[in-house]
């Protein structure tokens, strides 16, 4: 059911984007969906917050791009933060946010997460994911771990379901690999 939530949420955001495209020119455009965001030439996600901004703290609203927050809140969605957990490893300094419209009974939503992580914790988490059947893939931004698509209830256009990205001292999570582009938090 959790994966259906993710797939349905992506469809809802695409429909919201289509409606916004038909709106009068005086209205602000809709934010990009998780399938249309792209990194800039440096390989960093577009719209990353300024890490020198002392007012910025990790939250569901600062973890992802401002355009994504605007699109989700315009759709009536709010976020519920949860502890960032990978297998048996709880990352107390991190956060996972599940965005949905909690005013109605639904299985639509989107998931984003970010946490600092030590090298030992990353090794433990990655070992746990491999033992649970997750697939490892090295990339220019770090090491990706994605669930087996045979068991995924929702995937992006490239066939990736829920995916972790391990970088140097941090880990991100989204309901799809493409959704990781929307996690713009830097510490």
UniProtKB/TrEMBL annotation:
<feature type="signal peptide">
    <location>
        <begin position="1"/>
        <end position="23"/>
    </location>
</feature>
<keyword id="KW-0732">Signal</keyword>
<feature type="region of interest" description="Disordered">
    <location>
        <begin position="25"/>
        <end position="56"/>
    </location>
</feature>
<feature type="compositionally biased region" description="Low complexity">
    <location>
        <begin position="25"/>
        <end position="50"/>
    </location>
</feature>
<protein>
    <submittedName>
        <fullName>Uncharacterized protein</fullName>
    </submittedName>
</protein>
């Amino acid at each position: 059911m959790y994966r259906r939530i993710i797939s349905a949420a992506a469809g809802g955001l695409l429909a919201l984007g289509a409606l916004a495209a038909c709106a009068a020119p005086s209205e602000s455009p809709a934010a990009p969906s998780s399938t249309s965001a792209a990194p800039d030439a440096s390989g960093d996600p577009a719209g990353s917050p300024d890490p020198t901004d002392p007012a910025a703290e990790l939250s569901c609203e600062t973890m992802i791009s401002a355009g994504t927050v605007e699109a989700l809140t315009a759709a009536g969605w709010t976020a519920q933060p949860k502890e960032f957990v990978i297998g048996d490893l709880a990352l107390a300094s991190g956060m996972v946010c599940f965005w949905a419209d909690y005013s109605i009974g639904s299985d639509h939503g989107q998931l984003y997460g970010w946490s600092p992580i030590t090298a030992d914790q990353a090794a433990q988490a990655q070992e746990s994911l491999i033992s649970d059947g997750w697939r490892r893939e090295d990339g220019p931004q770090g090491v990706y771990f994605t669930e087996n698509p045979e068991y995924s209830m929702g995937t992006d256009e490239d066939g990736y379901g829920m995916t972790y990205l391990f970088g140097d001292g941090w880990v991100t999570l989204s309901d799809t690999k493409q959704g990781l582009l929307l996690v713009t938090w830097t510490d």
